[in-house]
Amino acid sequence: MSDAYTLYSMQLSGNCYKIRLALHELGRPFRIVDVEKGSGVTASPEFLALNPNAQVPLLILPDGRPLAESGAMLIHLAEGTELIPSDSYERALCFQWMFFEQYSHEPVIAVARNWLHLTPGGRQTMAHRLEEWQQKGHRVLGVMEGRLAASPFFAGPRFSIADIALYAYTHAAEDADYDLSAYPAIGNWLDRVADRPRHVGIEWRP
């Protein structure tokens, strides 16, 4: 049995980046299995045996058990660490913002980034969605701005997995045509996250 995690990951995926960032933040040893978009790896019988939902990221624990869904991975990795608040209310806030990221933030900002930045011809294909993405995305960013104007991090005074979850796609929001200059509290928060001693960028590899 290895003491290292194995992460099936697409390098430019924000969801995969969340897990790389958390593993590095926690100092956990891990190896990467690169999965190229469109390669068919996630549709293979071997992969489907590990994750029937056929998606990355996929985390293999040191004991060999598989775990899918980035939010579940973050919670599992951070359990018992300072990345999940010990105070019950702040812990609930942490999960609240993680749910917000999945249900309000990612369906707009991450999806727009995928089409506009990562998919060849995506801007033309999805031209009819651009205005909707801008309206909904800026509403989401406004909600975040309000929170970060009142608190240094999403769950309170300390950095948590909620910040990791929201940082992954927010720091790359300009790839999806979102101008962050109108959100100074978000800008300051992005700087605080990037300044953490164990921070790594989306291009970093172990």
TrEMBL record:
GO molecular function, one term: glutathione transferase activity
Organism from which the protein derives: Kaistia hirudinis
Name of the protein described by the UniProt record: Glutathione S-transferase
EC assignment: 2.5.1.18
SUPFAM superfamilies: GST C-terminal domain-like (SSF47616), Thioredoxin-like (SSF52833)
Organism superkingdom: Bacteria
Record-annotated GST N-terminal domain positions: 3-85
Enzyme's top EC category: transferase
Keyword field: Transferase
Domain GST C-terminal: 87-206
InterPro entries: Glutathione-S-Trfase_C-like (IPR010987), Glutathione-S-Trfase_C_sf (IPR036282), Glutathione_S-Trfase (IPR040079), Glutathione_S-Trfase_N (IPR004045), Thioredoxin-like_sf (IPR036249)
